[in-house]
Amino acid sequence: MKTLNIILVAFGLIPLVAYGQETDSRFMQGFTENFSTSEPQYFNMDGSKIRYYSGVHSLIEENTDVMLMSIQPTDPWGAGRGPQITSPQMTHFGRYSARIRVADVKEAQPNIGVVTGYFTYRFTKGYGLSEIDFEWLMADPTIIYVGTWTSAPDDGRKLQRVGRTINLAKGEILYTNYRSYHDGKDFQSINHYFDESDDAANTPRTIPAIADYDASKRFYVYGFDWYPNRLTWWMEHPETGEKIILWDYQGTTPHFSGIPQSPTTHMLNFWHTNNWPVDTNPNSIEAPKYPYTMEVDWMKYEPFDDLNAAWRAENKF
User: Where residue 99 falls among pLDDT bands split at 50, 70, 90?
Assistant: First the structure.
C-alpha cells in the first residue's frame, strides 16, 4: 500500500494539499486567543516587544488577564506604525469577535489623533483588497466606525470603502455611505450616500443607545459575521448580553463587490493618525504626547468551513 501511495502521488492522482479548512496549512483553523501567557498563541507581535505585555492583569478589571498594547510619542503616524498583532496564517469567511477596551486618554489629551483598529486585512494580486474594520478614535470613544474596503483586482490604489459611523452613547447613526478613490484624477476620495429607500444598505435604520457607552471606560464585546454576500457587524449589550446589530450590509455599489471575497488575516492595531479627526472634533489629529495603553481580553475566529472550501474550489485558490 505504501508503494502504491508513492506512485499515485508521483503521477498527481492524490493531491498533496487538501483544500478543506481543516487541512490547508495556509489557513488558520478556528481559535480563541485568551492572551493568558507572555507570548500569544495565535498572533505575531509586529515590531519591538516592549510595546506588548501579554498575560498581565487588566488595569481596570480584577481577575482578568489581557494583552496591553502601548503607543509611544515617538511612533510615526500611519496605520501599522504603532503596535500591531497579526495572525500568521490566512482567515476567511466566518465569525470574528473580540473583547476590547480602548485607551482612556480624552481628558489627558482632548485633541489626540490615535486609532484602535480591530480588523481583517490582505491584498492578494488577482483578487484585490480584502479588509473589514471596527475602528475607534480616542478623541471621542462614544463613536464607532464600521466598514469594509475592496479594490480593483490588480491595483490597490483603486479603492472603495463602504461604511457606517455611529454614536453608540446616543443611539445615532451619523451616516452610511461608500467612498471611492478612482472616480477622477489622482484617485481622489469621493463620497456617495446610499438612497434612503435602499434597505439592503441601510439595515438596521435605528440602533438603541447604550447607556454611558464609552469604549475607553470598560470592556465590550464586538464582532462581525462575514459571508460572501453579507456583512453583519454587532456587539453584545454590556448588561444583558443581547446581540445588538450595528449594520447588516447586503447592498451593492458600482465599484467592485462592496463585500470582500478573498482570504485575509486577522489583526488588531493601535496607531497615530495626522489626517483623520473624529467627527465630533475636527482638531483631533495631534500625535500622542505620552505613552498610552489599550487592552484586549480575547479574540476569536470561527470559520464558515463550507463557504470557505466552496470559494477556494471555485476560484482555484
Answer: very high
